[in-house]
Amino acid sequence: MIQWFVNLTPGDYIISFFADDYIVEWYDDVLDPALATVITVTEEGTVTGIDAALEFGGPRIVGYVYDELTGLPVPGVSAGADGPTPDGEVSYADGRFEFRNLTPGDYAVGFFSDDHFMEWYDDAYTSGAATTVTLGAGTTVMPDVYLRPLGVYGHVVNERTGEPIVGATVTVASPIPRSGITLRDGSFAVTGFGWLDWGSYAVFVSAPGFMSEWYDDTRARRRAALVDIRPQAMPNDLHVALRPFRGTPGRGPRR
Questions:
Q1: Which residues pair with 82 in a beta bridge?
Q2: Of 203, 159, 172, 168, whose CA–CA distance to 186 is shortest?
Q3: Which CATH number is associated with domain 58-149?
Q4: pLDDT in tens, 40-51
């Protein structure tokens, strides 16, 4: 079959080829778009000879994995299918993963990344709690998967009123400390952790007009509750209530 791309703006392009039950391919004969050959379109003429021979993929599961915060594709994620024909693959530059030549049946699909919390589809943290993907004789396209980056998440509120605190500073006492600022709803996300940062750390929270504290509700670091920041850990959601100083709005008059 001949396919024409018409009225293209001059520039550089990469081209993919896909069809039901066949393995997606990028020109020239690669699976990862990061390795695709760039085709340059000029104003002078037509580019020809961009051909492909697609390989039959058999029954397969296809999907894409993205970062929960940025929405960008996550390459290099280890994806595993646990079922009649166990398989493991790694996501490509566009976030695509593909299990090929599987036996039809039910599969639990899990995802592991050095800098994201591990999860099983759909938002489960053990294979036993996973939502199974049922594969028939053709291709099953999974819903998009979003992984949460390693980090510390939660909300900071006024202990007296329960109102969110805007502009509080949340610091993770990792070897290289990292901090975040609460938003209008009091939420925060302290991210940027990789495999060199895996561990359990104390978290310090401060805000103007409020008493600072270590999570969970202590003034002493040695008594702080440690937060586990590793792919295998459960994603965290800290709730921090800071006590206002006397005279701070929401504290009430001094007696």
A1: 108
A2: 168
A3: 2.60.40.1120
A4: 888 777 787 777
